[in-house]
Structure formats: structure tokens, C-alpha cells
Amino acid sequence: MFGTVITGQGHLRPFTFFELWMLFFNWFLFGNSLWSINPYRNDLNVILQNPLMFFTQLIFLAFFINGVIQIIKESKSREELDSLDLILYVFSLPLFLLCLNFIGFKNTYIERSVFIVLPFFYIILVKGITGLKAKPISLVCTIFTIVLSIITLTSFIKKSDEWTVYAPKPDWRAAASFFDNELKDTTKRVFIFAVKPPTELTYYDSRFEEYKIKGLDVSNKTLRKLKQLSEKSNYFVNKLYLDLTRHIQFRKERIANAQSLIFFDNKINKENIYETMSLNNVKTFYLIHKIYHRGDFRSLLEGVMKDPRFQLMGTQSFKGMEIFKFMLVS
Question: The pTM is what?
């Protein structure tokens, strides 16, 4: 509807052989919790700087390889290929992402997009551990794996304020409470600007509504094209046109009745803010900084702070975010 494609978005990165290694033997194995590593740091130094992690990874690599060997042996002994499906389940999606990277699609991957592979990876891992010929060694390896998993889970729980499998959860409830108090002190609409969309505010308070800059303009262009197609009596296109029309009309009504509008765009700047405030005859506005998804917020904040048309009225900090209150002075 809005003409955007997920390929190439800022939170995605290229899927390389290094990422494949880290996917299996850091994200799947340790949940990025036992040794927490910046997911966008794509270099071998992250492994070399953690020799204990690398040694542990090599141990589980041996288990994994043995699991693949066990599966191949089973398929040969049974003279059927059904058990080989498990290997395909593990490698098909990662190999597809590798191929996309090689043909030029550089930003297509984030760990959770391959999460579906996790159970199959562990099945092969378990087959490798239980398939060891020496049963006492197999038992020791099983206990070692269980203990390591418990330690990993404990580490994940303790690191609630650190980026592990995902960014720590910001305290949106406290932020919504802050804005609730701000709304009580004004009869005018409250305007919020952000580089990354603070969608969670709309969950905690129905008076908030998102408005992506130029978002509805793009939708109108799409509608005009669909209307031209629908005039040719294509049932499905006509139905899509009617559904989109209703959806956009509903969004416009929500925006018109919202007490607080949230404007967001990765390229938003001080001129966008000044123009919006002037057109709506509103003096006070807020900038929200999502600490764990900062985008280009620093440039936006520096531009607003240096501009004499704006005056900083105060700041509020909550877990995972900062809120800056400004006033338009000219």
C-alpha cells in the first residue's frame, strides 16, 4: 500500500558464511546471552576476542557434524531418503539467503527471520550427542549441554537491560503516563516527532495516532492507479480498491480525531517540524529518542537544538528512551 519493500531496510544485513556460523553457534546455541555480541559487528574479531566461546562452539560443531553423519547413515541403512529431509530443513533457508547475498541483495537478513530453523538444528545436535559410540561420553555430553542451556537461560534473564536476542524492552507504560499528564495541561493537540515510530504509545493510549510523513499521499497515488484499473471491471482489483479506500478513510478519520499525533520518518528534519507546527498553530512539541533503535536521531536533535526558532523546555528519561520537550519561539 505504501510502496515500500522490506529488502534493504536499515534493520536488515547481508547473510554471509560468518553470519551462518553465528546463527547456528551463537544465536541458536547461546541466545546471544552467554556472550552478548553486537549483531551488526560482522567480523572474526568477535570470535577471536572470546576464545572460550570459540572453543565451546567447536565442541558443538563436532556434535552437529556427527548428527549429520548419523542421519546419512540412517538413510542408507533404511534405503530411504525421508531422514535426509531434516538436513534440508536446516540448510535450505540459510543457503537461499546466502544466494540472495551473492546475487546482490545485501540487506535481507535478521536473526529472527530464520528462527524457524532452530528446532531442526537442535534435533541434529541431539542426534550427534546421543549417537556417540561411547555411551558414558554421550551421557557426559548430554549433561554438559543441559547445564550450558540452563546457564544460558539464567544469563538471558539477568541481562534484561542488555541487547541479547533483541533490544531491551523500553518502558512505554511510563512514557504513556508522562504524556497523559502533559495532555491534561493543554487543550491543543500534542505533536510528537520521532525518527523511529513509537508505535507502542498507540497501544497504551487510544488518543495517540501515528502519521508517517507523506504516507497518505503515497496511498492516494496507489488508489488512483487502482481506480483506473477497477474501471475495467476486474472484480478482484475493484474489491481491493474499495477495501483500500475504506481503510484510508478510516485512517484519516482517526488522524482527524486524535488528540496527539506522532510524526515519524527516518529523514525527518527541523524544517519538517517547523512547517508542521506552523501549519497547525501549535507551539509545543516533543522528540522521542528510542535508544536501542536510534536511526539518525542525533542529527535531528542537534539541528533542533541549534535552531533559534526552538527552545528546549525539559527532558525526561525512561528505560530505553528519552523524551525532549521543545517550544516554538518564533
Answer: 0.68
